[in-house]
Amino acid sequence: xxxxxxxxxxxAMGPRLRAAREHHGATxxxxxxxxxxxxxxxxxxxxxxxxxxLEVLLHLSKEYGVSLDELAGTAPAxxxxxxxxxxxxxxxxxxxxxxxxxxxxxHAHKHVLASLEDPPARPRxxxxxxxxxxxxxxxxxxxxLGDQDLILTPGDLAEFxxxxxxxxxxxxxxxxxEYLIMFGPQGERLRPRTPPAAGRGNRQPxxxxxxxxxxx
Length: 216
Known about the structure:
This protein has five helices and nine strands, in the order H-H-H-H-H-E-E-E-E-E-E-E-E-E. By secondary structure, the chain is α+β, with helices and mostly antiparallel strands. It folds into two domains: 1-77, 434 Repressor (Amino-terminal Domain); 105-190 and 205-216, Jelly Rolls. The strands form two sheets. It has a six-stranded antiparallel sheet. Strand 5 and strand 6 form a beta hairpin. The longest helix has 22 residues, at 3-24.
């Protein structure tokens, strides 16, 4: 494997490890107690500020019940369903596909939540360092942000400090939900550089505000 491929694989493990931990229902402190890996080390790995060692990956793979191939995104896809990149998939249909292949800086990844048969429960919340932008592509997403509940639909954008407790879920049965995440592990933020076009007033892309609340 080329050096660039190795670096790309290691960089993509941050969001995969974070997704695996959240799916496992564990906090950073809980994983630290179970594995002996410091909370700060786990946080730096998840946010792309540190490359994981093989020893760390073996501990986390065992703790989360996920294979190393799945964490690396190198698990072979079924022959009948070839695909360019292998997302980290879970038994409940959740999948995470990293879209960036480097260590540090802003990271992007796509999440897919499977269709539900029953009404969802309120999402379990987590908090960590960083800043996040979330944009819904398809379906209805329930974002539990602090004590607020936001229902986001295609085109809706949410931006928040990830130190605020947050969690997401498919907002309704009947179909999947797909959304993109841009995450700045050290608080990096997007910087709009294009002013509004002349003659179009002050129209801006729709953003879900903290005050907008809707019950699923």
